[in-house]
From TrEMBL:
The lineage of its organism: Bacteria, Bacillati, Actinomycetota, Coriobacteriia, Eggerthellales. SUPFAM superfamilies: NAD kinase/diacylglycerol kinase-like. One of its GO terms (biological process) is NAD+ metabolic process. InterPro entries: ATP-NAD_kinase_N, ATP-NAD_kinase_PpnK-typ_C, NAD/diacylglycerol_kinase_sf, NADK. It comes from Cryptobacterium curtum (strain ATCC 700683 / DSM 15641 / CCUG 43107 / 12-3). This is NAD kinase. PANTHER family: NAD KINASE. It is found in: Cytoplasm.
Amino acid sequence: MRILIMRNAESPAAIDASLMLGAYLSSQDIEFTLADAADPEGIIASSFDMAVALGGDGTILRTAKMIRYSRVPILGINYGHLGFLANGNQGGVVAASAAALAGDTVAEERTNLRIFVQCEGDDDDQYESMCAGDADASIDDDFAISRCLFALNEAALTRGALGWMIDCELSISGSLVGTVRGDGMVISTATGSTAYALSAGGPLVAPNFRGLVVVPVAPHSLIARAVVTDPHDIVELTLGDTRGDHEAQLFVDGLAVEFPAPIKRLRVQRGPEPTILLRYQGESFYTLLRTTFFEHTEPVD
């Protein structure tokens, strides 16, 4: 068995926990690799049997990005500011990890995203072949790597640094829904419904939901509302030709993604395999909602 330990190197508590966990795994003759979440270069996450993420939700998101669709389970233990996705650290890193190794945790399958980006000047046929997953198509490796992205929480297409509003034409599974003018659009998973999508006015969605949530950001409209899709739907955003549209910026799980040319189109669908999060003595999703977002209110008896 091989374990990947991903830690937030800016957290002294996470560093201490990683050293403690490493000592425990060594005592059990379990092979492990220790890496900093901010600099995981050279690690092939799919070669591990389990990943332990020591930090906040950001550390879990970075770990999930490394694992992508390989179904390597992630045990998150909170040593950060917000740990909505992570387990608490009250019982200690060794106890939680030992329970996961013994199979005494609950595996939650979380929907993630596969994001395809087309920029101005990109070849249409090459883009469509990439979206279709055509293994026989002649697709440049650099093109595919830079244009096919992973997210656990969301993809956010927003206005750029100049602050100009953007026009997003929204289509779902080939049907035109409409054009939304505003600060942008967030396409979120159920997991991401408690992140940027929530701040934009989207609904809170139970984590086992497999569809997507499309939320306008500050729309210049009285009727624009969030849309919750079927699990098999494909969401497409097409930008217009204004100066603001040419400055649009893509953020994936909170991180800006740069491209050599303005973004033309975004296609988002459910990933082929879920991200697996391990729960250790975890509270229910609805209890977490109360303690994280409504802690100022008292529970009703």
